[in-house]
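quick one
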Amino acid sequence: MNASAVSAFDASVLIVGAGPTGLTLACDLARRGVSFRIIDKTTNYFAGSRGKGLQPRSMEVLDDLGVIDQILANGRFHLAFRAYDGTTILGDYDMHEGRHPTPDVPYASTLMIPQWRVEEILSLRLAEWGVQVELATELVALEQNDDAVIATTQKGDTQDQVRIKYLVAADGGRSFVRKLLNVGFEGETWKDERMLVGDVRVDGLDRDHWHSWPKHKDGWIALCPLPSTEMFQFQAQIPAQEEGEPTLATFQQIVDERTGRSDLKLYDPTWLSLYRANVRMVDRYRDGRVFLAGDAAHVHSPAGGQGMNTGIQDAYNLGWKLGAVLNDADPSLLDTYEEERLPVAASLLGITTKLHRQIFSDNVKEMRRGPETLQLELNYRASSLSQQDDLSSTSLRAGDRAPDAPLLDHAGNRVRLFDFFRGPRFTLLSFGRHDLAGLSKVRERYQQNLRIYTIDDSPSEAVADNTHLADDQGHALRAYGGEGGALFLIRPDGYIGFIGGDRSIDFVEAYLKHI
Ligand SMILES: Cc1cc2nc3c(=O)[nH]c(=O)nc-3n(C[C@H](O)[C@H](O)[C@H](O)COP(=O)(O)OP(=O)(O)OC[C@H]3O[C@@H](n4cnc5c(N)ncnc54)[C@H](O)[C@@H]3O)c2cc1C
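structure w/ flavin-adenine dinucleotide:
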């Protein structure tokens, strides 16, 4: 059917795929009041763990979406990695030794939690907004013109046509949409680097260590307890010449041979799979009104636990931009999604490939994870959305992650900056000297989309209302600088969009006007 033949829109956005990427986007759009649908071809949610490491930056996103308590309750920090040679313990390693929360970084190390649990928590959150994933519903065709996308979905024998303004392909590594639109997916498949992976119960191992036998001649094997379950994730390297059949019998045989123990019993598998290393990314994130996100845009080694996390942040970057453009912002804002996220995917492939090489070369001493895996240092400094006027009082740059800080509110309650960032709007922080007339002009004009807070080192008479925060311990000043007066405009996704001096309110206004 010709796209122009159908007129009314069924929804503004169709999200294809309800993995961590699609669900994060769905939650973000739901809280913005955007009309959307989310479909997945699967009939039941996937039972396997797959990703099991949630990075600090993703936890900040999930905090903003209102599910961090459930996430923390179901996960575990600082799970010690225990290496063996046969029955001999070689040592215990904390991949995140010395990493603990600080005033500016509330989540400091990787949380172990099965991916399906993260998806479950996001689905339940989505249901609170009255949205259900439409399961057993597959995207089978799409076409687009300047005004709309017409998506054909199939449920059982019934096909439907859905007219939307934008479609987001969060349909995973084998993305149907990416192939249909002929988007390039350059990279390599490392045919000989395969592993068996699955979730099983194991008798004979404690649940306080990630058990690993890195030195066996046929390759390494690891059994990681999955928090909030009774399962372990099994991973074993497969020699190039071997078949690598994903059956419980093969898993048990590998455990027996490579651990040298006869007391470890595997049973009740919920997922048995053979993984092949693929390292690829798209050459563009956008085709007209269609956006690619998550594994649909980049696949890489699971080493370092980056995939699910990068998908969550693709979605978080795209969500506020879609929300803004559907609310009449300049559509060119959507071009910044590719501008900001494509370089992240490129660097991700480098990080995970390096870790993959370390793991596949049995170098146990290299177990500590580098800070880049936490995704806190990731920034958009080079983006056209990152602007600055006066940097004399700060070492931060526009495009950096906005740090957290404990403060006091006007009633003397202990609060965090992240409490004030939470929600779908921009936040303007005014430090030190305040241009009160300028702030109130901008507040009036952008009240729907902007919150403004003044920050001083002690409660201030001049601005004693609920928009004033006291930096009684100096944490905000240490994290931001801003001594003598500065403005920081924080984007809805927690990155600094604009930095300027206390007199640069006109620049803030121009920035917001553009968006
Ligand atoms: C062994 C292993 C370990 C890993 N460890 C980690 C880790 O520790 N940390 C980490 O961050 N990542 C890890 N990953 C990677 C992580 O699992 C993926 O990056 C993540 O699943 C990507 O999420 P996604 O939502 O983009 O895609 P997916 O989770 O693949 O979801 C895509 C969804 O789209 C649906 N779909 C596909 N086609 C259609 C269609 N035509 N119509 C409707 N629906 C469709 C699918 O049914 C699926 O539900 C690991 C992966 C593996 C295999």
